[in-house]
Amino acid sequence: MARSRAAVRTRRCWIDPQDFRQTRLAARLTVDQAAALLFVSSRTVRYWEAGRARIPYAAFKLLKVLRGHGLPGEAWAGWTVTQEALWSPAGHRFLPGELEWLSLVFRQAQAFRVVYRKLRRLQRHGASEGHLSPSPTDRREAPPLPRRAGGEEAEAQAEAGGVALRSR
């Protein structure tokens, strides 16, 4: 059944002009700064605050977010935005430059989980069949690291073809 146009309309929320003005002042924004931030004219902001025009809820909510109120939605509970940073509920600060790389970090973590699961699956199934048991060459010990030598010991080691590290 098709919905009528009236049923599709969203509910309008009335914003009190004084609440909008107080929120703007609490965010330490002038009328001109608020207008630039909201991509409207200064006259529009003055009309909103005078009650001569309806204030869009999005404009009011954006000012509240900039004031330090939480972000909208349950998924963002406890998160806040202040000046140039996003703050987590645990108190961690995220700057814009750090957030640019966040998607890469998530993709790397996802790739690691996939590879780790495959490795665990191979170890579980392959080790029981003997496929992943170490070969004799894997069991060899690595050659010992050269000892720190100085003076005569270093010369003797160099003559024998070893590597000598000079001590300071």
Automatic annotation (TrEMBL):
Query: What lineage does UniProt assign to this protein's organism?
Result: Bacteria, Pseudomonadati, Pseudomonadota, Hydrogenophilia, Hydrogenophilia incertae sedis
Q: Write down the species.
A: Pelomicrobium methylotrophicum
Q: Where are the stretches annotated Disordered? A: 126-168
Which Pfam families does the entry mention? DUF3653
Protein name as annotated: Helix-turn-helix domain-containing protein
| Annotated Gene3D superfamilies | lambda repressor-like DNA-binding domains
Bias kind Low complexity: ranges: 157-168
Domain of life of the organism in this record? Answer: Bacteria
Q: Which GO MF terms are attached to this record?
A: DNA binding
